[in-house]
TrEMBL record:
It comes from Carassius auratus (Goldfish). CDD domains: Ketohexokinase. One of its GO terms (biological process) is fructose metabolic process. This is Ketohexokinase-like isoform X3. Residues 84-217 form the Carbohydrate kinase PfkB domain. It holds the Pfam family PfkB. Coiled coil: none annotated. GO terms for molecular function: ketohexokinase activity. InterPro entries: Ketohexokinase-related, KHK, PfkB_dom, Ribokinase-like. Signal peptide: none annotated. It comes from the Eukaryota.
Length: 241
């Protein structure tokens, strides 16, 4: 595996977090105990967790010169053309500007076609928002994360039903994962077998900020560190907590 990295492409943003003594009731005033500003964003959070787990990683996204900025376009295929693909073993896309991301992934596929299998880049995509343009990413990932919101948008009422109904959109050999909040997460590979992991909530739940990004990082890092390809019959899911 060498020193090749995981590249996470997508959003970095400023999260403004207000701490209160209890969850506010609707249409009431609640005194804020404290406030903090911290870095957030799906791709950025995923990269943070990967780093904490000891994985070599990098982030690619639009960065502002200060805490408040306008006109921050998403990463374009022109931006991505400057990336040295030989430095990466895995690239993860947070579904955003899908038309551009399709072209980026095409570049990686072209690169992979000229490499030995051991040097090919694994592609993962996250489809979280119920936006039609994002659905063109389904057939492009070796590992595809689909959100509960998207699954419900398609009319599915469980993770397992979503996997069975959506898997046909994926490329041959891919793996599909769907997390379903407190009900855990399910995954399915090309053999059609569904693997389930229960949720293991902490003793005290404060908030769910970054929960999905953390989950995605675990699903990326485990096969990465073992040198295990995705899209195979051996799918691993982290305990969902």
């Amino acid at each position: 595996m060498g020193d090749k990295k995981i590249l996470s492409i997508g959003l970095v943003c400023l999260d403004i977090i207000n701490v209160v003594d209890k969850y506010p009731e609707e249409d009431t005033d609640t005194r804020c105990l404290s406030q903090r500003w911290q870095r957030g964003g799906n791709a950025s959070n995923t990269c943070t967790v990967l780093s904490l787990l000891g994985a070599p990683c990098a982030f690619m996204g639009s960065l502002a010169p200060g805490p408040v900025a306008e006109n921050l376009p998403d990463v374009s295929v022109e931006d991505f053309s400057k990336v040295d693909l030989s430095q990466y073993k895995w690239i993860h896309w947070e579904g955003r500007n899908a038309d551009e991301q399709v072209k980026m992934i095409e570049r990686v596929r072209e690169y992979n076609s000229k490499q030995e299998e051991k040097n090919r880049i694994t592609i993962s995509v996250e489809i979280e928002k119920t936006r039609e343009p994002l659905y063109q990413l389904f057939p492009l990932g070796d590992l595809v994360f689909v959100s509960k919101d998207v699954a419900q948008h398609f009319g599915f009422t469980s993770a397992s039903a979503a996997l069975k109904g959506i898997y046909g959109r994926l490329r041959k050999g891919a793996t599909l994962i769907c997390a379903w909040a407190e009900k855990g997460a399910d995954a399915m590979g090309p053999d059609g077998v569904i693997i389930h992991s229960d949720a293991f909530p902490p003793e005290k739940l404060v908030d769910t900020l970054g929960a999905g990004d953390t989950f995605n990082a675990f699903c990326d890092i485990f096969p990465f560190k073992r040198g295990q390809p995705t899209g195979c019959s051996h799918i691993w899911l982290p305990d969902c907590g």
